[in-house]
User: Fold these one by one.
Assistant:
Number 1:
Amino acid sequence: MRVLVVGGGGREHALSWALHRDSPDAGLFAAPGNPGTALLGTNLPIAATAIDELVAAVLQHDIDVTIIGPEAPLAAGLADRLRAESRAVFGPSQAAARLESSKAYAKEVMRRAAVPTGTSATFTDLDPALAYIATHPEPLVVKASGLAAGKGVVVCASRDEAADVARAMLAGHALGEAGSEIVVEEFLAGEELSVLALTDGERIVILPPAQDHKRLGEGDTGPNTGGMGAYCPVALTTEPLLTRVRRDVFEPVLREMAAQGAPYEGVLYAGLMVAADGTPNVLEFNCRFGDPEAQAILPALAKGATKHLLDIARRRWRPKKQVLAATRAAVTTVLAARGYPEKPERGAAITIPDALGSDVLVFHAGTAKDAGGNLQSAGGRVLSVTGLGAGVPAAAKASAAACERITFEGKTWRRDIAWRELQRAGAA
């Protein structure tokens, strides 16, 4: 079997690691991959958004299954192109991927499907947006409707701040095309939770929920990022809560997508805000594995979990369980470059000790090899360091200890990943 993982970040290294663990004899390819995926298979120097070249590579290398990691190639229709060539692919169609590529569209789907979510309004013109903001309760949230690499959501403490953000997106084109349409939404209080489900459009298997840490600084301060860390399992996720998420979120959304002629296949990520009364309100949908959630969820699963992905892609999935439980705890800490997220520095030499321990996994994200074969930083989020343990406190300790030992100039990281769970466990 030959499997291609599209993408070159920490998520794609984690997917490649899980596939290699489950199917060590499979031929693994990554496009473009990174120095971490190169240790597991063959990197193809093709950008994740080079759709024509990727399709050609699948045919040239006779790839059996393609797993698409990032959102951009899904939004560009890579899955459709591969299916048109009768190639098995894990990932939704371009039409179904609009659940992520257009927050305005996702809001409309949720409205039609009666999915619990914050009230909102969508705008392409500045004046009506400012008029709506002027009467909106504080705080409020302004979102770029399009893909903005995790930087298109701004929680605004005041209407004045929201108006400035709207001006920057709609008039100042701060986020380019992604911000040409915005969603103004009510602020929802509670605790955030990432719940991912595998689906073939009808059947649903829920993965171990995770919690992401989006803010740059400890104590959830500073600017939003693509994610500074994640952990699972999360004690907040009781069986009744997951039953509600299945019944009130995943099932109605899948029915609505099918009714619109865009059946959803792949992994559907629901970013939730769980209210004090236990109501799971949807903040957003992603049409792929989260990053860094994948680096925590995949190692927490039992060996063999990637067979679900391969079977969904080959349209022969017959799951026997409705939920895949975590078999161990995993805490992932992101080591970022100095200047991230605005202007990350590149080119810093990286040293990863050989003996970090059997309870640590290091996933490459923004790394590259220089002309001499030395590892260096090449992006904002450089490495994802996953600690494993019987419980979250032990996994957090393993992750933090490894982060201390990995070195590169300007290393930036949060030392409080999983802080809510540690407080719940009395280990904070």
Note: The longest strand covers residues 191-199.
Number 2:
Amino acid sequence: MRTKSNYVGIDVGKDNLDFAVAGIEKITRFDNRASGIEALIRQIDHLQPKLIAVEASGGYEATFVEALMVKGHQVSVVNPTRIRALAKAKGLLAKTDEIDAQNIANYAAIIRPEPTKLREDLDQRIRALIIRREQLVDIRSAERNRLGTCHESTKEDIQEHLDWLGQQITHLETEIKQLVKGSEVWSRQIGLLETMPGVGFLTAVTLTANMPELGTLNRQKIAALAGLAPYNRDSGKKRGKRRIFGGRQSVRRVMYMAALSAMRYNPVIKKFYERLIENGKPFKVAITACMRKMITILNVMVKKQTGWVCPV
């Protein structure tokens, strides 16, 4: 089994890591703790696989993936939706941890996704703060909704929580800005993205943290990665509506807010949006198209390392 042609799949859970090799039905389970991770990496070191596919599991995979990358292994963190889609295409409808691990290994062997790049410590710290800010913003939105319908006796408590959330979000934003200032690479990238009218600091820093591929992919791939590429839903004579699918929710969220601003202050996006509306496109379709146009322009800006230039 000591060959570079092996493809490995890891199904990640809160407590366990299930290990499988493409073409071999045997599944091995390890604890998702330091001792289990060390034992699994020793086995992987001996196997020397060409690629290790690890299912994205809400952060439970982070420690393991980083440890693999430090050891020099080629690792790809993959979207579980795509793994299930391939399994269904092959007629594999059952779902257990053992089956999932084998499906992930098969996905690695067939699709051969691009390896994920190792993040520097600063990247990880900034990304963690961005994720935490997004979590608090979601909680604040939920509390604001409750404030409008709650009983009078609970309004004061909810308002106090809202005030606290606002303070914490401001504190996190300040901390993010301080970390960015301390990095020439981050400052240059964010400064470049902010030259586009409509793109503010939070949009720029979220894109930098959550889309490191910006500037390295073509426009179709970068749009798909952001979840802004429309997919056909056609069958026979039926022509369904094209819909966006998957992608990175955090990127899509900040691009939505950026597009709202750009539709007013960015002459290119404003003109593009107005033309879509004049042609009878619904608001949701028009703003999604604006988001897609913006992310593809930003992709070119990063690739060429040139700031926004407004056409005459």
Note: Residues 152-181 form the longest helix (30 residues).
Number 3:
Amino acid sequence: MDILVIGSGGREHAICNSFSKSARADKIFCAPGNAGIASIAECIPIKAEDISSLADFAASQSIDLTFVGGETSLALGIVDDFERRGLKIVGPSEAAARLEASKAFAKDFMARQGIPTAVYRSASSAQEAIEILEAGEFGDEERAVVVKADGLAAGKGVVVARDRTEAIDAARSMATLVGSDAAAAIVLEECLVGREVSLLSFCDGKSFKLMPPTRDHKRIGEGDTGPNTGGMGTITDASLLTDEQAAEIVETVIKPTLHGCADEGFPFRGILFLGLMMTADGPKILEYNVRFGDPETQSILVRLDTDLVDICEAMLSGSLDQIEIKWRPGSSATVVLAAKDYPQVPQKGDVISGLDESSNADGVTVFHAGTATGAEGEYTTAGGRVLGVTAVADDLQAALSKAYFAVELISWDGMQYRRDIGK
């Protein structure tokens, strides 16, 4: 097969890496890719949002399978466009992608389908959100409130405000934080208390297969301090969910979601990502994503033993229930290395040292996210999140130790990372 992966980050590097292990993969392309991806795939200079050009390329190259990495292309309807042209592509339709593209749509969907989630109100503007808060609909002045931009915001459109004053400030400044389009509408939610976990699954419209549970670390600073980022590290470990908790999530969230999507006319096919809070009243969903997360993908796919091409074909043909998906036992961990000044405007162009040594460390894979190639062939920083150092081992502590050992071998001016991933 000739395969096209769409995207340019660490997630796409991990996806290309999994496809490269398949005996069925002939040529792998990635649009637009990055400097690290170029070692295993041919990078094509087409932006992920340029759907027409991507479809033209897939048709001209007789691409057998396309896999969409990020949410923006999905929200723009890339799957619908490819399918109209008879091209095989993995991902949800534009209608199904609304589960991520609009927080308000997702919350209303959860309410219609009886899926457990936080109490919420949708506001059509920042001013309306402020009026709802001032009216006291979310309790007294000291109660925490979650303020969310309705649209896509690269993981940065959520503010957990400690009190009403902070919530009002967050609503007022959301457009500045994530852009006026993403913040055109705002969702207010009660602040749930519990332990966060993410659970992803492969879906074919009616059946699903679970992936190992994972946990992300969103904030830039250790101890979960500072502003939100796209994600500073992830772990997979069996301790994140008991079998009973996973079964409850399947019955109360996953099955109703898939049934609801089908009943409402947009069967879900692709990767379903659940952000969950394990509360005293049971699991409640914080958000849907409609694709692999970044850097969750890096930690998950290093444990995948089944051929990803076979899984993709099963999703496309509606036969997921007929295959067994095998995972490497144990745990995994990813530590993200970010550029100086991230998550604000990151410094770029710094030469990265130690990549060969870290990549050769036992059980370690280094995934490129924001990298470029310099004039002398060296790798340089080219984005906010630059690398994801991923390790797999028999237990979580061993995976973390391997990852941090490899991290210490890498350096560039202003490199920053969290030292408490998995803690």
Note: The first strand starts at residue 2 and ends at 7.
Number 4:
Amino acid sequence: MKRRSIRIALNSAVIAVVLVCIAPATAPCGDLPLPEMQHHLAEAEESFRRAMALDQTKPDEALNVYQKSIMHFERIIDEGGVRNGRLYYNLGNAYFRWGDIGRAILNYRRAALYMPNDPNLKQNLEFARSRREDSIERKQAEKVFKTLFFLHYDVPSNVRLAIFSYAFALVWVCAAVLLFTKRGGMRLLLVVSALVSALFLASLIVESVSLARKSDGVIVADQVVARKGDAETYEPSFTEPLHAGTEFSLLTRRTGWLHVELEDGARCWLPAASGELVLE
């Protein structure tokens, strides 16, 4: 009985650790009082709705109203210290309607950190990507890797967590039953449950570590000349400049410059002001 209590406690502890790893905190941590945040949120949402109504009849006026909506959303983030998926999603929508593809993609990517499996977010992100000027294919090796490990990439994290939890619990149920019976089927079920729980736990841990370490970013400048070194005197890396919305992984920083890798594996240097990181 004592051993079983210890096992149950360990089970609960493992699940709690995984939950903490994959669920970023969203609590406000800024200086903006709650009533002011509520005011900015109401103004942002009202401005967005009004701008959408003006889109067809008065497009120029609509752009000004979208800009007002963006200003209110960003006040909540910058001064209120609020970080959550819905807020970034709405800000991404406002930037997209305003015509800023780079910051739309950036904020959709930030929203995906908090709600990675939201279908509307995925659809809007892919549509925004389709509007970019640069068409950069992912590395072939990465495509193959994602195909082979489709369970990790295609199954939502909350589903993987649920599968892990049930499989892990089943391991101990089978182990307890085997104390009183030696049925071969129960032993096989124990082995299968253990393998499934180990597989999905590894997937969740890899995902959480990847999110913590990986520094992805998005070009937000209208266009930027990528260079072979960290100065304007270096030759351009490509014949054409890169444009807003192109995504990259940060390799290293130097004063005023970012050394990045693009989705096709090409590496170059960008002025720091031309791009922003997904993880602020």
Note: The longest helix spans residues 184-213.
